[in-house]
Amino acid sequence: MSLPVNYSSYTLEAGxxxxxxxxLAGPVVAAALILPVDFTHPLLTDSKKxxxxxxxxxxxxxxxxALAWAIGVIDAPRIDQVNILNATYxxxxxxxxxxxxxxxxxxxxxxxxxxxxxxxxxxxxxxDARFLNIxxxxxxxxxxxxxxxxxxxxxxxxxxxxxxxxxxxxFHRQSIAQHGITPYHRKSFSLLPxxxxxx
Length: 199
Description:
Layout: E1 13-19, E2 28-34, H1 52-65, E3 68-74, H2 76-82, H3 84-97, E4 105-109, E5 121-124, H4 132-155, H5 161-164, H6 170-179
Parallel strand pairs: 1-4, 4-5
Antiparallel strand pairs: 1-2, 2-3
């Protein structure tokens, strides 16, 4: 059974979600997505509940059916400058601004958001598991960011970003301890591991 598309009664509602907020390296990426109100898909849900293969399968389906979609990317230096919460808001605003259709309403995954000018919104906890437009945005943000990290892995293969995607795995933190940091690391984050990780 498919989830409902929209939270509100507006036809042109954009679902908005982000990926990479908790990573030690790489950008935070947000996606905004407007789907037709009659769109259905039994597989589409929160991207964290989907396998990599399922996300890759779903992405072209989402893009082919979308009325509008856009991506916002905020890099590590900007994250360090404004903090991750504000950087996440900036990524979401960039994605919303990039939409080819101006949405009438914004459905934001999570519990916090900086209001976007002149568009009403609601923050929806676990929205990516409740509404297709947010679920689709989560898939777009996740797959876009994963591919960015796979490209950055080619530049700095010693950190294993092809697997961790920049998240704080034990291997990633061991690599930081051994090799130091890159321009893609978030210096404002706690990058070095606790010694207990290696006991």
